[in-house]
Amino acid sequence: MSRRTVRTALLTAAAAAVAAPVLAVPHSPLTAPAAAAAAQVRVDDGCLDSVPEPGSTEPVAICFTVFRPADASRRDPVPMVVHSHGWGGSRTTDPAAFAAFTDAGYGVVSFDQRGWGESGGQAHVEDPTLEGTDVRRLVRMVSRLAWVEQDGPGDPRLGAIGGSYGGGYQFVGAFEELRLRGEPVFDALAPEITWHDLGQSLAPEGVVRTAWAAALAAAALPSDALPPAVYKALVEGAATGAWPDGSLPGGEDLEADFADNGPHFHVRQGRRLDIPVLLGQGTTDSLFPLEQGLRTFRSALTQRARERSIFVGYNGGHVLPALLPRGVDVTSDPCSEKLAGGDFTALTLRFLDHALRGGRRTLQGYGRYHLATPASTCVSTGSVRATTTYDVGTVATSTALGVPVATPVAEGPITVAGTPYLTADVTAPGVGSRAFYGLAVGTSPADARLVQNNVLPLHEPTPVTGAARRIALPSVAVRVPRGQRLYLLASPVSDVFAGTGSRTPGLVVLEGTVVHLPRKHR
Fold first, then answer.
1. The Xaa-Pro dipeptidyl-peptidase-like domain covers which part of the protein (predicted)?
2. Cα 186 from Cα 70, distance rounded (Å)
3. How many CB atoms lie under 10 A from the CB of residue 43?
C-alpha cells in the first residue's frame, strides 16, 4: 500500500467517524493570570540533540522553552516543573500560561516532543529508546541550569505536568531513569488522561476503537508525524476491526511495536515508581478510560508511593458524543474542588508544594481514589475492587445489528465506585462474535443511559457453547438514587468501535450471569 493511499484512507476514515472527537476537560490545563506577573519571567528558547531516528545517524533536535521566575538565582534556586503537550500539539511559549507556577516560585520548561512542533524526527508514541532518551536529555539540560535546585549531580528537583501524550512522557521518563539509574530522577508527577497499556486502550480484547484510531492518525497527517508503518497498521485495523498483530500476510504488528510503550511494560518487568503521583483520569474518557488510570495507580506505584499519592477522576478527557449506546454529556471536576477548593491546576500546585518542597501537608485524600459521578458529586474510596455480586440470569443480544438490551441489576439507592466485571457462560454460535457491555442507570430499560459513556467488548473468534468467561466492564462512579435502577447494558454495536461489530449475524447469550460490583457502603 502506497503512502498516498494510506493517507487518503485515513482521511476518509476520520471523516466517516461517528462524531468529531474533542478533548473536554473540566478546567484549564494551565492557568493564565495577569500578564504583568508573567512579564517578570525570563523566557529562553532552545533545542538539544537527541538520538537519531531508526536507520539514521542524524541527531534529532528536541526544542523547548524555559521560564525562569524573577527571583530564581544561583543563591536562591527553585524547583523545576516539566511540561509537554498532547497528541498533535506543541509546546507552550506564552509565560502567562504558566504564571500560576512561576508566581509560586517554580521554573517551568515546556518542550516539543519528537515529531511535533519544532522538534525533529517522528512520533513513536513514547518509545523508551527514543522519547525516553529525549526526556533524559532534557533533564540533563535542566540539571545544568544554575538557578534550578539540585539534589545531586544530574539530579534537579523536578516535577512534571501535562495531559494525554503530555502524561505519557512523564511515565516513560520516570521509568527509563528507574531502569538505568535505579531511581526516577523526577521527584513527583502530575499526569492526566493518559494510558497504562496502549494496546488495551486503543483495542481492548483486540477490538479497535476505530473512531479514535482514525482521529489520532488524522491529527498526525499534516506534519507526517507518524512513521509510515503505523499509518498502514491503522488502516488495517479500521478495515478488519482487529488490532494488527502481524498475523495477516504483509500486515503490520502494532502489538509488538507498542508492547513497551507505557507503564504496563515496566510493571511486567517488575519496576514500580516510589515517588508521589497526582493522577487525573477522565471518567467519561473513551480513549484512555478510567480503568487505565486506576491500573497505573494500583500497579505502577509502590505501596509507599500510593500512600503519598492521590487519584482524581473527573468528568472529561478524550470525549466522543455517546449516542449508541446512549451516554451522558457532563464536564465537571467535583473532586479537585473537594480536595483543594479549586480545579486540577490548583490541586496540582498544592500537591507539588508538599512533594517538592516538603513541610506540612495541606491536602487531605492521600492514598485514596476520588471519583466524579455523572451528577457532579465526588465519591472517595480506599478500594476500587469489586466485592459485591448480583445474579442477573440470562443476558442475550443480537450481533452485527440490533438495539441495546438493558437487564436490571440493583435498585437504588446504591453507590458504585471502581471496576466492575461479569462472569457468565457464553454461547456464541457465529464466527467472530462480538458484543459490548457497560453499566447504565434509569427508571426503566427504555430510558437507561450508560453511566459514563463507555462500553467494553466481548470477542469470541470461534463458535463457543457454554464457555466460562470473565468479561470486563468499564470502571465507573455513580450514585443511583432511590426510584432508579442500575442496569447491565448489552449492545451489538458501539459508535466508538464503529465498524468492529460481529462479522456474522447471530446471538451472544450469557447464562448464569453474575455482575461483580465495587459497591461503596456507608
1. 64-310
2. 24
3. 15
Q: Please, what is the angle between helix 210-220 and helix 3-15, to 10°?
A: 130
Quick one: 296 and 438 in the same domain? no
For 507, other C-beta atoms within 10 Å of its C-beta total 17
> How far apart (Å, rounded) are the C-alpha atoms in residues 266 and 236?
28
Task: Give the whole-angstrom CA distance, residue 109 versus residue 65.
Answer: 6
Which amino acid is it at 493?
V
Q: Is residue 480 part of a domain?
A: yes
Which residues of the chain register pLDDT less than 50?
1-20, 31-35
Phi, psi dihedrals of residue 235, rounded to the nearest 5°: -65, -40
Domain at 316, CATH number: 3.40.50.1820
Reported residue count of the chain is 522
Reference 451, options 295, 305, 313, 247; nearest CA is 313
The answer as to whether 522 is a domain residue is no
Q: Cell digits for 111?
A: 518542550
DSSP label at 333? -
pLDDT for residue 480: 98
Domain count, the chain: 3
Considering only CA atoms, which of 69, 85, 498, 79 is closest in space to residue 321? 498
